[in-house]
Design a protein that fits this description.
With 312 residues, this protein is an alpha/beta fold. It contains 10 helices and 9 strands.
Length: 312
Amino acid sequence: MFNLENFVKNTIKELKGTIRGKAVIALSGGVDSTTAAVLVSKAIGKNLRCLFVNTGLVRDEDLENIDWLKDNTELNIEIIDASEEFFKALRGVIDPEEKRKIIGELFIRVFERNAEDAKYLIQGTIAPDWIETGSGIRDKIKTHHNVGIPLDVKFQIVEPLRDLYKDEVRKLSQYLGLPESIYGRQPFPGPGLAIRVLGEVTPKKVDIVRRATAILNQEIGRAYPNFEEKPWQYFTVLLPVRSVGVRGDKRAYGYVIAIRMVQSVDGMTAAFFKPDFRLLDKIGTRITNEISEVNRVVYDITNKPPGTIEWE
């Protein structure tokens, strides 16, 4: 059985013996990276620099949560805007594995430019990340950005949460005193909204899926005010197809948004969430009414397996 007290005590002791100098971490404000940052900071204090890289592929709430962490924790947080660089690197790229690799490598390069004299890179890697990335006898399902890093990286990699699953990380986050706004956050992929825009990633498409995600989050929050009632993960995906529709009395040719909601414990398997259809009606109506570029909304009823939780 997972013993939080022993895990924290043993991990801090191990980190003190491993990290001999300054370290840097990619802080997204999500439960994995934030929990890793708080844990490592207990071991090395201000020798840990937390870099939030605004890739242009983040949600509005991500920026808000980083501001909260700056104001309410002792973490040493810096914000770097690299959005133009990421969009330029992704121009014309369609293959999801190529997207992930480009974003993963660019993350590292941004870090190298801003890490100063840090020797260690802290990663919020958890068990499903390296299991799904695959190695040896395991098939690769998809490359997670914090696993498929360049071989010539100058940092020594430290992964304090490597053997934990998402439910265990949430418990650890609570144990470390973080609020529900952190431990209850939706899992969010490292490549961000780039893998929730199927096909080529552009600022316009990212903005569409960001607005659709905000609407979904608002309605889920109203329908399920308690954290325990909410689906384990929920998000929207912009599909690389257009659909004929009607807006007013005119023909429209707009984008299609897919809604994905799942129930899971550790992220390794998942079942599609079965919401009240009145909730889906409200979400779909709001998306098509408030986002003029979208004229059709569909709901994903695929379990994992055979599908993954994310579409890419």
